[in-house]
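Moderator note: this is an archived Q&A kept for reference. The question asked for a predicted structure of one protein chain; the sequence and the answer are reproduced below.
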Amino acid sequence: MRKSIARLCIRALLAAALLEAGHAVAVDVVIFDQPVSKADRRREYANALLTAVLERTVPEFGPYQIRHAVAHMERPRLFQALKDGDLVNLTAYPATPDWMRELKPVPVPIDLGLQSWRIFLIDAKSQPALRATRTLADLARLKAGSGSAWATLQSLKEAHLTVVTGSSYTGLFQMLMAGRFDYLPRGVNEIFAEYDTHKPDYPALAVEETLLLHDRIPSLFFVAPREKRLHRRITAGMEALLADGSLERLVLQYHRNDLRRAKLCTRKRFELPNRQLDPALFGRKELWLNPFEARHGFCPALLPR
């Protein structure tokens, strides 16, 4: 960690020295979006990955700066801000058709599809009803929660599940614990940080133990349309990290404990339709981490004896 920080400081000082000496140095300025609050840990991995991507591309593209937007923006506001490119020019979010069409997506999932494996936050009293679920029709008798602009909303609806929507991220936790809906699907990469953060305020909050949804909605880096050079840089960095295995190693470094806590192999699994996105996104097998593969070691039953 100290070596990484020292390397970043050296690069920043070198860029400043070159500028002072009168050399024309192109510095790519990234303005990344803000999390909901300091307690919101969902952006930790994306920030680490962004730094790795920019570092990998220094030899080709030169120095960079990472800044952050002055305030958090919910998804609809963030979408508009990205189209303008002034307040923010880069984010990492689950893909929807309008974002794919109107922004500049980098077509390598930032977490190799980990967020598309979804388990539920619940009020503990709902566990018996969910444990009794055998089919999607059974699950449809209960109510799912979703943000009104979330990418997963359409997949839930296309699976004929009953959905109650909320307009704000923090409000959804209040709605769940007030009984407005029965379960809140969350990516396996984010649910335990959210559980640990919100459990002190909601003692009855629990992670559901038996079910798993898979919607194959990729989380991507999205770049402001006018930032063509930045888009080329992020794309080149992501492809380089993917090619040498660094991306998978970083995903597992940050989320191995989440996958162990999730116990995916013991859960009843439901595949949700994804008719929103171009099927070409799903054509490259190397873009998708399969947590059920024996080599990852998360499924004891699959390990050689």
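Archived answer notes: Confidence is low (pLDDT under 50) at residues 1-23.
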